[in-house]
């Protein structure tokens, strides 16, 4: 045991868990914590942002890019609430993010005295958007609560966790010991369920596989099962790259919709399967096998034929061991899939100018480069057409789909993987949510490249008002700054592109700089992708 303040114990516990970067915004309630950060500045990097939302988004981006826990620190009350959207997004995306949140003096919590940044039941709020939330009450408690929080963040269905600590408790000194870090073993595979799943899938005439974010660390296993079954693999957003787009069995959302209508068995791996079950439809002819780490997930919409609760890679390996004895030799489905791809190709090609711009991006961004999607017209199209060859290189905000998430998230991905090219796209509406973080990029030398698509509008809002509300457009048009001058005022290199060829050239120059860069792409109307995203019911 050794004498430490609570703040020092928290920091030492983070380091022992392999966390060497904290994203944050300092303030009175966190003074002892940031002083403890200073004491280990040769072992831990602090990246301070210009807004609490961005500190949390940076931690989220780092977690999504690496698959490892990441931490951020914010003051209580307004600081915590500012970070709330990113925590909510992390919850929806099952991202292991640790929020270190300050608190008013311990004796005054929840007493309504009106202390600076006081908020009623901060922990109760945290529990709505986090998997685990607890209060550190003494130096001795700090190491174990960090241990419990991070264990919760990475075990089972991963997710964000919150630890709060009162400002006076952070400064309090006491004797501290650190628990041994013992990873939680994954749950064992249910052998009977694996056998039943292999028997069902092996007998299927037209199987298909749907993968989500829970399959990101099971890429090789997904590929092996797909090839054993000759089953097309559908990925959309979170699961993109689990099976490379270039693989003969990889299919996008519109092709998956066509296949869903005729499939007799579906293997769903690490996905909520929400769109397929709730929108595309199910019936008694369709047998569904679920592999999911969360025991509540498989039966959320409809009880599956078989559920394997556990780690995706382990469940798939159990299938790989059993499928050969249950499955017959299968003919290639290459011709069938080629026919489906050809049928939707003209519709995809008509998504202009988005597709042409995305082709330019793909040419300039290396295969292992990270693309950060945004809630913008080019982003919607990217979910359908951008080739993705590697897991964790297509970052998309999941079902929250929150406008303006991208810049901070991309900065975090780049900070965590400085040697990997990272590209963030944004619309002019979402970009201004976190525009101040251009200063963070410059100050911390984070060489992120941002492509800003500018149509002077909240484009999707405006389209809906035009098409569904008789062109009664309100609160959709935007007056923008001169984006080039704005970025240059931060010290960011700027480029302008109006054609795909110009965009590709600008991207290559921007990546070569090794410094923060912005490419401004003004454009006009865009084709709607929604008939290939919100597709009709085909079963049930």
Describe the structure.
By secondary structure, the protein is of the alpha/beta class. It folds into three domains: 175 residues, Thiamin diphosphate (ThDP)-binding fold, Pyr/PP domains (Rossmann fold), CATH 3.40.50.970; 153 residues, TPP-binding domain (Rossmann fold, 3-Layer(aba) Sandwich), CATH 3.40.50; 183 residues, Rossmann fold, CATH 3.40.50.970. The chain is 41% helix and 17% strand. The chain contains 22 helices and 20 strands. The chain has a six-stranded parallel sheet with strand order 3-2-4-5-7-6, sandwiched between helices. The longest helix is centred in the middle third of the chain and has 16 residues. It is globular and about 70 Å long. 52% of the residues are buried. The mean pLDDT is 97.
List the helices and strands and how they pair.
Layout: E1 2-5, H1 6-16, E2 21-24, H2 31-39, E3 45-48, H3 52-66, E4 70-74, H4 78-82, H5 84-93, E5 97-103, H6 122-129, E6 132-136, H7 141-154, E7 161-166, H8 167-171, E8 173-176, H9 191-203, E9 207-211, H10 219-229, E10 233-235, E11 250-251, H11 253-260, E12 265-269, H12 274-280, E13 287-292, E14 306-309, H13 312-326, H14 334-349, H15 354-364, E15 370-372, H16 377-385, E16 394-395, H17 406-416, E17 422-427, H18 428-431, H19 437-443, E18 449-454, H20 459-468, H21 483-490, E19 493-496, H22 500-513, E20 517-522
Parallel strand pairs: 2-3, 2-4, 4-5, 5-7, 6-7, 9-10, 9-12, 10-11, 12-13, 13-14, 15-16, 15-17, 17-18, 18-20, 19-20
Antiparallel strand pairs: 1-8
Helix pairs in contact: 1-2, 1-7, 3-5, 3-17, 9-13, 10-13, 11-14, 15-16, 15-22
